[in-house]
Design brief:
single chain; 280 residues; Rossmann fold; 11 helices
Length: 280
């Protein structure tokens, strides 16, 4: 083993040890709590699910109040603490937030952690504490892409470019992981589209998995800025949210990426993309 290889081996070993210790720490901090990790792509309905889950957990229509900016919030009753997009600023920042929120965690019975645009590690992922229930969020691919495009355009017009709305091969790679998950893989899979249109049987079946019953549609979420198309000015209708792909101009680059990743498209989406490509 040469010096360079040896240094890489040592660095990797230290990194793995750090992850394992961080995983143990996070798991210990949230012990005796009901923990949900919500894993989805940005603009896929993560916050719609989280606020709906909050209502179900507390069996009343309620909302979050910010504790540490938009990174940490607590419910009105203080029974639920929410770590928003915990992976955005990295693991060290997440650990810092946990230590700073010690009292709020102690008061809470429920912990919700949202992870966006992220594929979990196979072992000892600190964002996924022991015994946590992981919910994978799924949404129609073209509606998801359309929402990200609209959000990216609006951010650019305001002089913002955080790179968080990227639509590229890494995006589709992560989306492939999302789509590959099923109930048999150990994750609970929630469909934003089914939740929108099937307000009785689908919702009740999903809540039953967690021994919950209270089904109340949440108000527009403050996290994430609301809808990509209407912001927080109004709650879009289900039909509007299911037809976002028809409300944007599609760049050729994105059309070609979607065509390349056709396994993620349903029949109607495939026809739509093929038609758009044939126009040019």
């Amino acid at each position: 083993m040469n010096k360079l290889t040896s240094k890489r081996f040592i660095a990797n070993s230290i990194h793995v040890l750090f992850l394992r210790l961080a995983h143990m720490l996070v798991s210990w901090k949230f012990k005796n709590k009901k923990v949900f990790v919500v894993c989805g792509m940005r603009r896929s309905g993560n916050h719609a699910f989280i606020n709906w889950l909050l209502n179900a957990l507390e069996e009343t229509e309620t909302s979050f109040e910010e504790l540490k900016g938009d990174r940490v919030s607590v419910s009105e009753s203080k029974k639920t603490i929410f770590f928003n997009e915990a992976n955005f600023y990295g693991l060290k920042f997440f650990l810092k937030l946990i230590f700073e929120s010690k009292q709020a965690i102690s008061n809470a019975s429920n912990v919700i952690i949202s992870i966006e645009d992220y594929v979990p590690r196979e072992k000892y992922d600190p964002y996924f504490p022991n015994k946590a229930t992981t919910v994978v969020i799924k949404r129609s691919t073209l509606n998801l892409v359309a929402s990200r495009l609209k959000r990216a355009i609006d951010q650019a017009q305001k002089g913002k470019d955080r790179g968080d709305m990227a639509i590229d091969e890494p995006f589709f790679s992560k989306l492939n992981w999302i789509y590959s998950q099923s109930e048999g893989t150990g994750y609970a899979c929630w469909s934003f589209d089914d939740w929108l249109v099937d307000k009785n049987s689908y919702r009740q079946r999903f809540l039953k998995k967690f021994e919950l019953k209270f089904d109340a549609t949440p108000q527009m979420s403050t996290q994430g800025g609301g809808s990509s198309f209407s912001g927080q000015s109004k709650i879009p209708t289900p039909s509007e949210m299911q037809a976002r792909w028809s409300e944007i101009d599609w760049p050729q680059r994105v059309l070609k990426l979607a065509k390349t990743n056709c396994s993620l498209l349903n029949e109607h989406e495939t026809v739509f993309i093929s038609g758009k490509l044939s126009e040019n």
